[in-house]
Specification:
Chain B: Keywords: Membrane, Transmembrane, Transmembrane helix. Chain B: The chain crosses the membrane at residues 20-36, 48-68, 89-109, 115-141, 196-216. Chain B: It comes from Micromonospora acroterricola. Chain B: This is ABC-2 type transport system permease protein. The complex is a heterodimer of chains A (281) and B (230). With 281 residues, chain A is an alpha/beta fold. Chain A folds into two domains: 3-60; 70-262, 3-Layer(aba) Sandwich (Rossmann fold), CATH 3.40.50.300. Helix content of chain A is 40%, strand content 21%. In chain A, helix 6 packs parallel to helix 8. The longest helix of chain A is centred in the first third of the chain and has 18 residues, at 21-38. Chain B is an all-alpha fold and 230 residues long. In chain B, helix 5 runs antiparallel to helix 6 (116-140), helix 6 (116-140) runs antiparallel to helix 8 (174-185) and helix 6 (116-140) runs parallel beside helix 9 (189-217). Chain B is elongated, with a radius of gyration of 19 Å. In chain B, 48% of the residues are buried. The chains are: A alpha/beta (281), B mainly alpha (230). Chains A and B meet through helix 5, strand 4, strand 5, helix 6 and helix 8 of A and helix 1, helix 4 and strand 1 of B.
Chain lengths: 281, 230
């Protein structure tokens, strides 16, 4: 990670911790000046971006975060069986506007199934989901058309909302740029790298301006910079009042979310993250 | 209407970019025509029509299978099931007509003494039936291999079955064969009428079948309740 990457990661951490925009800009500019004039590896000079952001937050405090809004997604008592195997048992999750919820758990515990039930793509054996507003869904993989360009994907998704071609293309390119990707090329989706294809997937899910965004491990194949941009974008969407549910197995990101649904069948240590809602009682 | 046309356009773009597959699909009707050309023109033209039907239904099968994961998210993005299946069908019919034109001209260049209006009607029936037929198989069988094998079976049955037998009328491309007989052998009007009626009825049934499967697969689930943004 060079100085620019470090500064980007540092800025994202400050944003994530709700440091005021002006104060964050000032702190990042100071750090950049220090690195430029004094030289040296930022990891040696300041330490990891996350740790240094923590120090800054302790020193200057944070801007008050927006209060969570009304309930946007309420999944109650979701149970799903495949044959004799119960994949989900009585899973419950409530997410409000301006919140990020993480769905965690071991492989095969039903994280993707839960999300697909919330999106209305499959039916549960029991339980109900109430969604307030428009839904957006980003699958773990697939969900794009091999022989279409990125712009054509944006036009296709945009037309669903009655958007004209030009605005749909522009909106798609702007959303892609926030993930560090210039989407306006003439490369077919099948020729995109795995990570870039996921950026297309993610961009498509935000294009229809959903009130509730369901993301199934959308960062597969992302490089470090994109991964930081991804969480940065989630924070922006949260601040804009969106309710976000993200399936993840990366437990080191749980401090970035407001609530956690753990679908692991047994809790050996009884540990649950703050705000955790257990899916298997 | 814009949503339907956008899906049709994207289907068209996708198919026209699969150049390798398209060329191989075009090869089949041509081979069918040429292989029987020396023996009996009627058989040659009927094989050509069957080849066109095979090519278009295979393209429809691939297009439907490829869109399987995309369609649910398009549904979430505001499309209704009929936008998706009718749009795709419209795109496939357009591709089918484009594919049919050179094969309509082929017997003409070959100097065959045919009723060309009949050949055009048979081509239309072939394309009209093939698109929803391939889509229906693609919707029912999720993997391309199974779908292709089923298509192959149907086409083989169609080729080998006695056209005068009652079972032949149950095969999807019987209409184009009947009309082709009228066009090639200059038979009575009954062949044309029966063929057109069969073609229309089979196309309508297949479109309804595609509509039913798509409506079930892309239905709004009962467990999900949508409320307006408060």
């Amino acid at each position: 990670m060079n100085s620019d990457d470090w500064l980007r990661a540092f800025a994202a951490e400050l944003h994530q911790r709700r440091v005021g925009a002006d104060a964050a800009r000032h702190v990042v500019a100071e750090a950049a000046t220090h690195l430029r004039e004094g030289g040296g590896d930022p990891w040696v000079v300041f330490g990891p971006p996350r740790q240094y952001a923590g120090v800054i937050v302790e020193s200057i405090g944070t801007a008050p975060g927006p209060r969570p809004g009304p309930v946007r997604l309420h999944a109650q008592g979701i149970t799903k069986r495949y044959g004799r195997r119960t994949v989900l048992r009585d899973a419950t999750l409530t997410v409000r506007a301006g919140q990020i919820a993480a769905v965690i758990g071991a492989n095969g515990c039903g994280k993707s199934t839960f999300l697909r039930i919330c999106a209305g793509l499959i039916s549960p054996d029991d339980g109900a989901v109430t969604v307030s507003g428009r839904l957006g869904y980003c699958p773990q993989s697939g969900g794009t058309a091999d022989f279409l360009l990125a712009d054509e994907h944006f036009v296709l998704v945009g037309a669903g909302q009655g958007m004209a071609r030009g605005p749909a293309r522009r909106a798609g390119r702007v959303a892609a740029r926030q993930l560090g990707w210039e989407a306006g090329g003439d490369v077919l989706a099948r020729h995109l790298s795995g990570g870039t294809r996921q950026k297309l997937n993610l961009t498509m899910s935000t294009l229809s301006d959903p009130d509730v965004l369901l993301l199934d491990e959308p960062y597969q194949g992302f490089d470090q910079g994109t991964y930081v941009n991804f969480w940065d974008q989630l924070s922006r969407l949260r601040d804009a009042g969106k309710a976000i549910v993200v399936v993840t197995h990366l437990l080191n990101q749980l401090d970035r979310v407001d609530t956690v649904l753990d679908l692991t069948p047994a809790q050996p240590s009884g540990w649950l993250a703050p705000g955790a809602q257990g899916g298997h009682p | 209407m814009n949503r339907l046309l956008t899906v049709a356009e994207m289907t068209l773009r996708e198919l026209l970019r699969r150049r390798g597959v398209l060329l191989l699909l075009l090869l089949m009707p041509l081979t069918f025509y040429l292989i029987r050309r020396d023996s009996y023109l009627g058989q040659s033209v009927r094989s050509l029509l069957l080849g066109v039907g095979w090519a278009v239904s295979t393209a429809a099968l691939f297009a439907t299978t490829a869109a399987r994961e995309l369609e649910p998210r398009l549904r979430l993005a505001g499309y209704r099931p009929h936008h998706l299946y009718l749009g795709r069908m419209l795109g496939l019919w357009t591709v089918g007509l484009v594919v049919a034109v050179p094969f309509f001209l082929l017997p003409m260049i070959d100097g065959a003494n045919l009723r060309y209006a009949g050949l055009a009607a048979a081509m239309l029936c072939s394309v009209g039936v093939a698109a929803p037929f391939g889509m229906l198989i693609g919707a029912l069988l999720p993997r391309e291999l199974e779908g292709t094998l089923l298509l192959l079976t149907v086409v083989t049955v169609q080729m080998l079955i006695d056209p005068a037998g009652s079972g032949a009328k149950l095969t999807p491309f019987w209409s184009s064969r009947e009309i082709a007989t009228w066009a090639v052998d200059h038979t009575d009007q009954g062949y044309l009428d029966r063929g057109l009626l069969h073609g229309l009825a089979v196309t309508a049934l297949l479109v309804l079948g595609v509509a039913a499967v798509a409506s079930v697969r892309l239905r709004r689930r009962r467990h999900l309740r949508h409320l307006p943004v408060s």
